[in-house]
Amino acid sequence: TLKLGVMASGSGSNFEAIARSIDEGELNAKIELLIYNNPEATVKNRAQKYQIPSLLLNHRDFSNRKALDRAIVEEFKARDVEWVIMAGWMRIVTEELLKAFPQRVINIHPSLLPSFKGINAIEQALEAQVKITGCTVHLVDLEVDSGPILVQAAVPILPNDTPETLHQRIQIQEHRIITQGIAIASALQGS
Ligand code: GAR
C-alpha cells in the first residue's frame, strides 16, 4: 500500500480521482494527508467527503518558498508519506521538497510537455493554434514542468473551444492518467 501525500491549490478534482480509485480498489494506496495552500480551495471539502485528513499551509504565512516546503516535508514525514502528488499545486517547489522525496514527487500538467510549460498552459495551447494538446504526469525535478514523463494523454482542440471547454475535456483525461502515473512510478521504483 503506497502512502501518498497530496498537495493541491484548487477544486481538487484530481485529488478526488485518486481518492476514488483507491476506494474502488484500482490503486493500492492510501492518502495520508492533503496539504492545500489557499484557504478558499474547495479541495478541502472533497477531503472531508472521503474522510482524509487535510491541512492548510497558507504560503502567505511563510517568508519564502523553501520555508513553505520545509513545513510540507515535516508534515508528510510525520505521517510516513512515501510519494508526493502535486494535484493542481500552483506553487513552484524547491529542493527542500525534492531532496526529501528523491524521484518521488509526481506532478500533473495540462499540456503535452515539453510544450506549454508554466501557468496558463491551456491558453498557451489555444493561442498557438495547435490541433492537439493534452496532459502529462511526470516526476518533478528542479526545473518547472520538466522531469521524466510517466504518462500522457492527447486531447483534440475543437474549433469553438474556449479555455473552459478545453479544460473540461483535458480533465477527463487527467483523472484517468493521474492514478496510472502513480502506479507506473511506483512500479519503476519497485515500491
Ligand atoms: C489541473 O488541470 C492540473 O493539470 C492543473 O491544475 C488543474 C487542477 O485541477 N495544474 C497546473 O496547471 C500546474 N501548473 P483540480 O484542482 O480540479 O485537480
From TrEMBL:
<feature type="active site" description="Proton donor">
    <location>
        <position position="109"/>
    </location>
</feature>
<dbReference type="Pfam" id="PF00551">
    <property type="entry name" value="Formyl_trans_N"/>
</dbReference>
<feature type="binding site">
    <location>
        <begin position="90"/>
        <end position="93"/>
    </location>
    <ligand>
        <name>(6R)-10-formyltetrahydrofolate</name>
    </ligand>
</feature>
<protein>
    <recommendedName>
        <fullName>Phosphoribosylglycinamide formyltransferase</fullName>
        <ecNumber>2.1.2.2</ecNumber>
    </recommendedName>
</protein>
<dbReference type="GO" id="GO:0005829">
    <property type="term" value="C:cytosol"/>
</dbReference>
<feature type="domain" description="Formyl transferase N-terminal">
    <location>
        <begin position="3"/>
        <end position="180"/>
    </location>
</feature>
<keyword id="KW-0658">Purine biosynthesis</keyword>
<comment type="similarity">
    <text>Belongs to the GART family.</text>
</comment>
<dbReference type="InterPro" id="IPR002376">
    <property type="entry name" value="Formyl_transf_N"/>
</dbReference>
<dbReference type="InterPro" id="IPR004607">
    <property type="entry name" value="GART"/>
</dbReference>
<dbReference type="InterPro" id="IPR036477">
    <property type="entry name" value="Formyl_transf_N_sf"/>
</dbReference>
<comment type="function">
    <text>Catalyzes the transfer of a formyl group from 10-formyltetrahydrofolate to 5-phospho-ribosyl-glycinamide (GAR), producing 5-phospho-ribosyl-N-formylglycinamide (FGAR) and tetrahydrofolate.</text>
</comment>
<dbReference type="GO" id="GO:0006189">
    <property type="term" value="P:'de novo' IMP biosynthetic process"/>
</dbReference>
<comment type="pathway">
    <text>Purine metabolism; IMP biosynthesis via de novo pathway; N(2)-formyl-N(1)-(5-phospho-D-ribosyl)glycinamide from N(1)-(5-phospho-D-ribosyl)glycinamide (10-formyl THF route): step 1/1.</text>
</comment>
<feature type="binding site">
    <location>
        <begin position="12"/>
        <end position="14"/>
    </location>
    <ligand>
        <name>N(1)-(5-phospho-beta-D-ribosyl)glycinamide</name>
    </ligand>
</feature>
<dbReference type="GO" id="GO:0004644">
    <property type="term" value="F:phosphoribosylglycinamide formyltransferase activity"/>
</dbReference>
<feature type="site" description="Raises pKa of active site His">
    <location>
        <position position="145"/>
    </location>
</feature>
<feature type="binding site">
    <location>
        <position position="107"/>
    </location>
    <ligand>
        <name>(6R)-10-formyltetrahydrofolate</name>
    </ligand>
</feature>
<keyword id="KW-0808">Transferase</keyword>
<feature type="binding site">
    <location>
        <position position="65"/>
    </location>
    <ligand>
        <name>(6R)-10-formyltetrahydrofolate</name>
    </ligand>
</feature>
